[in-house]
Design a protein that fits this description.
By secondary structure, the protein is α+β, with helices and mostly antiparallel strands. It contains 16 helices and twelve strands. The strands form two sheets. A seven-stranded mixed β-sheet has the order 1-2-3-7-4-6-5, with helices on both faces. Strands 8-12-9-11-10 form a five-stranded mixed β-sheet, sandwiched between helices.
Amino acid sequence: MTSQTKDSLSTFQKTTLSNGLRIVTSEMPHTRSVSINIYIGVGSRYETPEQAGISHFIEHMVFKGTERRPTPFDISSTIEGTGGVINAGTEHELTVYWVKVAQTHFEESLDLLMDMLRNSLYEQEGIEKERMVVIEELSMINDYPSYRVDALIDEMLWPEHPLGRDIGGTKESVTAISREMMLEHMARYYTPSNIVVSVAGSVSHEDVVQQVETLCDGWPTFDDPEGWSPFTHVQSEAQLSLEYRKTEQAHLCFAFPGVSLQHPDRYALDILSVILGEGMSSRLFVEVREKEGLAYDVHSGVTHFQDCGAFVVTAGVDPSRVYSAVEKILAQVSGLRDAVPEDELEKAKRLISGRLLLRMEDTRAVSGWIGNQEMLLGRILNLEDVVERVNSVTTEELRRVAGDILVTDKLNMAVVGPCRGKLRLQRLLKL
């Protein structure tokens, strides 16, 4: 089955093989590179507490060798020896393996990725070595206050839920993961019907489909894997988490429960984030950094999952100025509930649209755009539709969304650093 979605800038094509594997491509004949993203529909929110970190652990093991390429060097040198880049990432709702190479190395690069996914060895000795590497990675992340404050916020946003856990799991859970658990997890989720192969660059859709079909020969399909754990908790009061550490800065994070990928308010919330703290002309940058000198880094961002999301603000400040920074940041958040001037809204729309259009010049960004959407949404939105939806947002819509989401009862705040004024901070948590 082949379908095609077109806009004025690109043509996206999709083919679903008989085993259920989906192939999406965007031909970019003016480029010299090809980017391949292979998405697996599994991430940390699919894991039980006992399995915590298994998706991330497997992502590491896929790079450790296959029968044809028995060492990690054999895998990395295949790509890096051509000047290309290879990497992978585990997220809450998916895992992705990707390469970006010169067009002339497309076929061998796709062959490598499929070999890794289908034929990794999972040797016990390699598992034990990599287990220590993963544990060191977890320790490294915990040592960074900026990462630690994010972890505290996640625990508050998504209590007693996989979304509130570190994607890498814990030292205890990683220590307990066995080879048998890995192989069972692979058999359940690394199945063709749960995979999207996304390719962008100077290669035709027909060539991609032909090679993927050849590389997938004999790969059996199974029943649809188990789904993710839904999130149903509703926050009803502001929360504060304070962790004392002897650091040069106090790391602040503010977060509100947001909206899902397909929620009709997602574009309005995205615009609110741009106005508040994305870029050097945003309110937070101008008011908190430029006018007050309270922070070097202060910004906002939005996360959208399949059934929930978050609106987040982060900053690093001098410990002696924590309370002033908190007051200024919360004042800017509160200000979003007032009417946003029309010219400020138009500027934010141009910023979002311009960033989208500029991204589409890069093969990796295009491959990510079409593959991520196909995996999480089951469809690919064209750029013109997204730009049109962004441009349709009104000041009244912004005011309503801010009034629904950016309110005291839904506020979460985490602080990591040399700060002990918990009671004083609690008094400040009022919008």
